[in-house]
Amino acid sequence: MILHSILLGLGIRLASAGRSGEHRPPQQCRWDSGSRLRLGGEPSCVALVDDRTAAEIGSWEPWAYAPHCVYPPEQGSASKLCVYTYHSANGEAGLSLIATPEMASFVAGILSARSEPWGEFPSWQLSPGEARRAYEVVEVPGKGLGVVARRKIHRGEVIIRETPFVLGFTSDPGAAAGGEKPGLVEVAFTRLPEWHLERLSGMAVSTGGEWHEDVMRTNTFGVMVDGVEYSALFPEIARINHACRPNAFTRYSRTTLQMEIVAQQDIESDEEVTITYIPQNLLTADRQKLISRRGFTCGCPVCSTPSVASSSDANKSRINAILGTLRDLGPQRTEKILDELWQEMRQILAEESLHAQVAEFAGLWADLYWAAGAAAKAREIAGRVLAERVFYNGKDSERAERAKGFARKFEG
Ligand SMILES: [Zn+2]
């Protein structure tokens, strides 16, 4: 299985980082810099650690090793990048981070605020007391390894919850190292606990070149950490294959750094669990282009059966037509017309497994109902936006937060 995250260029990411000459004194909180993320009410205060502070004070807590830092070739224009590795108290779980010292301090705050003891259970399993493991990683005909349900999984069930092994830049860290060897990704890997390395050794590769970086390019997801996009390597989740109408989705938590795989519909025993690697709203021609650019193939019914592909394209074109109709109607959008078009829209979204997009359109309809004087319907549907955002994006997501503010628009 092959996954490619959508990555920003290294230069873009570094542009937001501090200047290389700037060093916060140890013990200065990361949280005074405008970050609005709050954990358990109070911000965590974690000392800034880098290669310099490690040498000066002989300590690099909470990290397991002194940070391994390199400067980008253009000195002064961007912060240095360092490898930080965290080991759980029992040494069984680890996370390597390739980041600026400021970002490492932010992540250290998240690690210290995690409610469950890290490393108490293998990172890809659910906590004790949660549903028994519902799947197995097995050979799937024509696809290599895949994740297959071993019992019926109900809509909304969390199938996998995983902490990343590696979180960091993947776009040519060798360039940032100015040719220094070994590269940051290799250092990040080798500092992880032994059993992590065993698991990583079996990961898929696709692009050639340096093996550690190939593993990252092939298997990572793009996730947001403090507003910056990072590549996160979740070895178990990386086993899940793509489908254009998937039966599960990813839900990432910015406050725990964990990724969940959640069933978006009931999944039968022996059915393969799938997610989408690409935006789901593309027409067949564009979808195939993107799939081949990302270096994988898809044999799902939408891709392999021409009649399914054309009805899917017709559905997606109809979505645009409905939006066009709404635009053209302007002030003539009556409650009755809105009812009819909403019903049709819901049906198309369900047929295309565009479940996560329901919130997007529900928000639009809430505004339209409100404008048409149907206040009760506007309120009802705005409430749905919040419920959908919590389900698909997580209750600690920015989208759920925005949906709360959106629902307040229709009060009173
Ligand atoms: Zn497909």
UniProtKB/TrEMBL annotation:
Residues 1-17 form the signal peptide. CDD domains: SET_SMYD (cd20071). Keywords: Signal. Residues 133-278 form the SET domain. It comes from the Eukaryota. PROSITE patterns: SET. Pfam families: SET. InterPro entries: SET_dom, SET_dom_sf, SET_domain_protein. The keyword Ligase does not apply. This is SET domain-containing protein.
